[in-house]
Design a protein that fits this description.
5-stranded parallel sheet; globular; 51% helix; Rossmann fold; alpha/beta
Length: 185
Amino acid sequence: MLIAMAGLPGTGKSTLARHLADAYAAVVLDKDSIRAALFPAALIEYSTRQDDFCMSIMFQVATYLLHNNPLQHVIIDGRTFSRSYQVVALEQLSRDLNVPLKIIECVCSDESAQRRLAGKQSIGEKSEKHLAANRDYNLYLTIKAHFEPIREPKLLVDTDNDLAQCLAACLAYLSNATDAEAQSS
């Protein structure tokens, strides 16, 4: 299964991704980690072009992992999927790999996002310094102003709720997907 974590910066995507990875023995592929591994700090530019390049590498890694182990679950993290073309690319990858795609869109109040991005609060965990140096409340507001709604089937998770409640909703959503797949096989 391919699981995509969507939502604005600071909405809890990475926190949920880590917990889901533990629950499913899944691999988390994070755009910001990939960018940090590929580019020296002086060459990191946080441009759409560089983001798309990092995503293309991430998709290649997902392809490699899923070809080598079709039962593997891969979680795509680190991108907001705020543009339709980004979701279309996910769908194409899912079709190419012949694996189900599950999108989990994280949302929270502006106040929670602002606190989290300032490093004062994280959903269910102590905040850590994020790899993406451009990740702040202004970026959140900019992306929010231009966010194209995700029209594809998805689970919407309000991360202002308790982490355990959010995780339970995600696990139920993903479990239903794997149960349905097992029944159709």
